[in-house]
Amino acid sequence: MEGMEGRKTEMSNFKLTSHKAEVLSAVKDKKARALEIIGGKAESYAKKLCPVRTGRLRNSITHQQRDDDTEVIGSNVEYAPHVCLGTRRSRKKPFLRPAVENHTEEYKAILKRVMSDDQ
User: Could you tell me if residue 58 is left (phi over 0), alpha (psi between -120 and 50 degrees) or otherwise beta?
Assistant: First the structure.
């Protein structure tokens, strides 16, 4: 046990400092940056898929971060759901859901790249 006593003395010279707040803040910032990039990509894909008659619907497509974990893509044009989901008189022409679902691997790669970036 002689060797253990010496180690205790050496260890008592260390001071531990928590950097939890800084780490959590950095993770939150990186996640927000990744969501912004992903939202922009999804918006771009949706605009490419959106049917165009006048351009109003396509121009209304935007993305926005709702909270720390959610990026929302959509349109505020009142007839957007009718175009996406269809009606009795018109077939559906989805553009929002495919913009998200068809690119999940790309979005995962963006999240991984941004979260592992040292900046």
Answer: alpha
